[in-house]
Structures are given as C-alpha cells and as structure tokens.
Amino acid sequence: MAYLTENDIGTERRANELATPHYFTTILVSIIIINIFTVLYHLLNSPLFNTISNAACIMLIGYAGFTVVRSQNNSTTNIVYIVAACIFTFLSILFNFGNSSITDGIKYLSIYVFYAAGYARATQVRPAEIRYVYFLAGLPILFFLTIGSSRVPEFVQLNIGNTFSYFANANAATLYFSALIFTMATQLGMRAILLQFVNVALMNKIGVAVATVAAICLWIVIPLRKESIIGLIVFAVVAVVALWVGAFDRALATFNSMSLLVDLGPDNVSRMSFRRLVELTGTTDLSGFFRIIHWANIWDIYSSGSFITKLFGYGIGQSQHLTVLQFVPHNDYLRILAEYGPLNLLIFSCFLLHVLFSLKTGHTKVLFMVLLIYFFSENLIDHFPSMTLYFTYAGRFAAMPDRELPKRRRVA
User: Fold this and answer.
1) What is the pTM of this model?
2) Are the CB atoms for 281 and 301 separated by under 8 Å?
C-alpha cells in the first residue's frame, strides 16, 4: 500500500488548483485593466473611468478573498492575521462610527488577503506574467512621455502640482516601480537590487533612497558572513558611483538643512511656520520639516484624546480632516496608530515581520525591507496596485520552498 506524505498531498492539492485559471496571471491582468481605466480618467478627466477603476479594485479584493476561502493550501497563521485585523478594524469603525472611511479600511485589510491568497496559490512564474509586468512598467512611462501628467484639475490641485505621469507624485511612482521589481525578484536575482538602485536614482526621492540603502546595509551585516565582505565592496562601489553622478545631491542637501532640527530640537521646530524655516535653512525643500510638523500635530491630537481614542484611534481616514495641514500622516505606522489604534498597529507590525522572515532569498528580503522602511516616511497603503503586487508576490515567495526557486538565482 502506498502512503502519501504531507508534501505529496500539498503537491496534489496545488496541482488540482492549477486546473483553474492561473491566479497570478489574473491579478496582473486585473491590475492592467485598473491602470488603463486610471489612464483614461487622467487623460479625459471623466469621473466615470475613476468609478470603474475603483469598482474593479473592489472586485479584485473579492476575488482574492474567494481564493483564500476555497483554497486547501492556506496557512493558519495567515488566516489568524486576517481575522485579527478584521476584528480590530471593525472595532475601530464601530467606536468611531460616522467618522471612519470604509474605503480606507478595506484597502488596509486587503494587504492581508492578498498575501494569504498569494501564499495559497504559489507556483512558478509563467512567461505571460513577465510580459504583463513589462506592460505595467511601460504604461506610466508612455503616459509621461506623451501626455505629461494628469489632466484632472482637482487631482493636480490636491497634490499641489507634484503629479508624475498619472500618479499623485513621484513617491507613488517610485513605489509602483519598486513593486514591479519585487514581482520579478526570483527571475532577476541580485539584478533586482541593482534595478532598485536605478529606480531610486532616476526618481530622486529621499525616502525611498534612505529605505533602499538601509535595507541593503541591514541585509549585508545581519548576520555577518563571508559574503558580507563582497557585499560591502559592491555596495561601496555602487554608492560611490551614485554619489559621483549626483543621485544623492538632494538627499545630502536635505540632511544638511536638517541640522536645524538638532540645534533647536524637534519640539521647537514643529511649532515654526514654513516661512520661518525657509529663512533659517535657506531652502524651500522642506519635506523633512513638513513631516515633523505634521507628525507632531497628529500625535497631539491622538494623545489628547479619550481612552477609547487611545485604544481604537480617532477614526480611519480622519487625519486629513483633523490636522492643521489637512494631509494623511506620511507615515503608515503612525497612521495605523492614530486612526486604527495601537492594537491594529501591533497586528500590522507583527504581520510585516512575519512576511519578511517568511521570504526565502536575500534579494526578496532586501526589496521587502525597502517597503517596511519606506512606510516610515510615506502613505503607501493607499496605493492599491502597488500594495496588491507587493503582498501577492510576497505570499508567493514565502510559500515556495527553496527547491522550487531557480537554482542559479538562490541567495542566502
């Protein structure tokens, strides 16, 4: 009599599920459709296409959720995270009834669902996926080269003229390309990190530059191993070249201007007007100071609230209505704390660490660490296509055992 091992059963179940349309191909095609409707919205200034795009996002979340429910390859840990996040998000909405954005809550919960679905349906990358990723990369570039930026006046005004292609700003575009690079991580190997460097250099955004450098440094030195020396040498060469071509000029100028923060202290700086800061620093590039002032305002609102507010936040999506600057926090960890409450922040943080430590290769860990560090300085959860790609493929990479990864691409 033949006996099936757990691995044999898992393989058989996965083979049965492959009889249905390929999950990852469906995700990529759906993201393409969403992007096309987004392009039409920004090109024609027609709200109809924006509505269709949003509806497609909801349908895609539903598809991922249905995939998780019917799959036989779910991880118990992933399901626990979904349930816990749903419970505490619901409680936040309940205790802030009438002052919570259901849409923002759904986008937040979707990252847990996409990760679990990607994990449950993990398979090798198909050639069609690579072509779809190329198309997704080319679409915003083509729009930028032919059209420029959004033709929706309200969108441009809301983002203070900082739009890039059909994205709200260059930060959102950088995140999008980072997500696409992450989807190709097992195919590109260490070249994916080089591509991320190119992405950072071309977009010239400080937050993602710092996140990329920090992620690479952490991967090189923790744990220390013989490959660390080679990694440090390669990293040093790339960093010197990037510095020589001026890729870090804006970052260095910003850090120099931030010396005022050390001299006067965060508390004093947070109470200064932007005009006074321009006079003291001699520059109008105050993105770092903007964040400090905004974060201090958010913390004051949250910490001065009632016990219920401290436990469940002051309401999902309410930061832009309650703060002086009327923007979302530019820090997703702070946003989860202030809007959802500390219990949700704990779940969110533990979930991200769970994903990170579940990844099998060094380059996938580096690229995912970029996202985790980038969360400290930007609003990233709101960017649906990027979050869908990041967490869907993180689930795939976490579920695939080493023997299923391309042998020539393995990195410890």
Assistant:
1) 0.86
2) no
